Structures
1.
Amino acid sequence: MEKLVSLGCRAQFLLNATRAIDFLAPLALRLYLVPVFWMAGTNKLGSMEDTIAWFGNPDWGLGMPFPTLMAWAASLTEAVGAIALLIGLGVRWVSMPLMITMIVAAVTVHWHNGWLAIAEGSGIFATERTIGAVERLDRAKDILREHGNYSWLTENGSFVVLNNGIEFAATYFIMLLVLFFYGPGKASLDHLIRKRYGNCAN
């Protein structure tokens, strides 16, 4: 029994030793999110007239009030947020508007499509919509096999149907939630500022 306890203690010691590089976890979250928000924000900023129209139009867009204000707020939040995440500056602060952006996106854009980002025909998140999409996808593949060069068409990846559910928005929200509570880690400007000026800096 004592040998087992000793082995357990050694294993725990080795496990605890990994905390020396625990900065890698929040850094990985930040670096994963950077291109997500940078592309989303800069794509909106690159065509603001279209973005504002999409935010405001109730027929083919989001039908949101104050579309100009909302479009600029979302676009700048994503673009500036990406830069803040990259350098690790004000990460806990910038996580809040980014989380709000994800909630708004989930509710206004993705909610009616269910959970799945990519349509699947089985599993607990499959719906009539995704099952129908997969049936149509299978039929499209049959047509391509019969009339197209299917090997070439799928050489760089399989065909899928975009369901555009809340899966990605929810995933990004959870990642931001972790950063909000645990901070950006040691590999950040926030950490350097806190070391110099104390806890009030973060």
2.
Amino acid sequence: MYKIVLFLAAFFISESISTQQMVTDRPDQTESASTVLKGSLQIESGGYIEFREDDLETINQVILPTTLFRYGLFEGVEIRVLNQIGGAKSTSEVKSRTGIYDIEIGSKIQIFQNKNTHTQIAFLSHLSVPTGSPEITKNKIGTINKLSVSHLLSEKIGIGYNLGFNYFGTGNGDLTYSISMASAINAKAGIYLELFGELTAFNQHVSNFDAGFTYLITDNFQLDFSFGTGLNNGMNYIAFGLSWNIHDP
């Protein structure tokens, strides 16, 4: 219950603050419906520490760094590469599993933009290629797909939500969702609140909450910090990172 109270309190506080500039796909789980400008390279990198436990085991995971490269190929079209290094250790394992995760290659295509209604819609798809270290790789080609919608509700508040489907070669795949509200404290600092989760194998519902803070050092360089917790599961995480946009005019 305290998690719901925290969410509602922060929701109403966010009503009084205004928007900011640089659009990134971190630190929240919701991918924006915006693409980077043509000829622009945006690097979004950081660290992620997760603690997960259930009745059977405890799993600790550290990813450092996780780096997303976004390049504007055309107006409304970007190509993306995600690379991660890290490891995990569970109480059921003697040794930790460390190394390079499977690389993800994909694109984001903006399919709708209406300046009058301040609405954007984009489709994002990644191909997960089994290139990771033996202890970490899934050993299968997988797909990660999302439909992303963003609305500017006012000059003060923006909201985005995703609906997705992931499939890694076995089972029925997973249905994913997220909804995020973001606002700015001033021209440089911003906050967000988010609910996200998945329907694993279209059978088991996992629901989570997270929140975070961003700070613009310059118009093209941003720092972030976030934390999250499971609403119906034993997950907690903290993350930190930076984003840098390099534009070739």
3.
Amino acid sequence: MDIARLDLNLLVVFDMLLRKQSVSRAAEALNMSQPAASAALNRLRATFEDPLFIRSSRGIQPTPRALQLAEPLQSVLDRIKNDMLQQSKFDPASAKRRFVFNMVDVGELVFLPRLLKHFRASAPNADIVTVSTPPDQLEAALQVGDVDLAVGYFRGFQSASLYQQRLFRHAFVCAMRKDHPVVGENITRKQFLDAHHAVIHPEGKSHELFERALAESALARRVVLRLPHYLAIPMILAESDLIVTVPYAVGQSFAKMGNIKISRVPFDVPSAEVKQFWHARFQNDPANRWLRETVFSLFAAKAPKKTPQPKLRRIH
């Protein structure tokens, strides 16, 4: 194929079709009409002599040839964007864009208050969006830029295309109402095992560590309430004798909300590493670099006032 015959604008349409897997959604994202997007797809098919996308009940699905072209296409577009079109520096004070974090409500309790305060001072025109992407879709979301950073505990999150950076480790504590009729300043093992418990079980998060520690110690507790999120826990604890085991930072947040106290867990539980993850595509992106350096400076354990360039580890 003669590159002079290739309209580079078609590559932008091709990339968006791969991302959205829908002609109408790709057209909307590119601010073009659906007929124009369909015409661009027909030109792409003629150029590459392949259907590229096949209609299905869920939109359009890429052919093997389209999937083969996806990686070099992203590389070309990234080079154009980062090396030719991207400014060499990111100015947070004037930037008008949104940053998308993948975190569950426990992360929102711990990270968002300080992040928002920092953004209002340093990046007043930037917005924060939080999402909770299913674990099996998270790498893809990071790759296409739908998520800028994933922050939290992600067991088994392994890919050669991702970078990770440790922020801190967190232990677990038991939370209950201050005037609990049985538990004093510190909960004992017997009190823990005899009590009624609430359990939060967000998929793939650090609570799994605690549950495994219980199982390995052959300890069983009476669970009377199971929830997928933390939102209602402070109100439930304040009005009942239930006990819930949560990460330390979350327990601290609960204790500030009302009639709640926290106590150490009465047996050994491994602590969890909280990290931030980003895709290799955005390793040199100035905005992404500023974002992750901001998160590191705010939340890394014993972070100095002037944060040096941290050591990063590629996931293998």
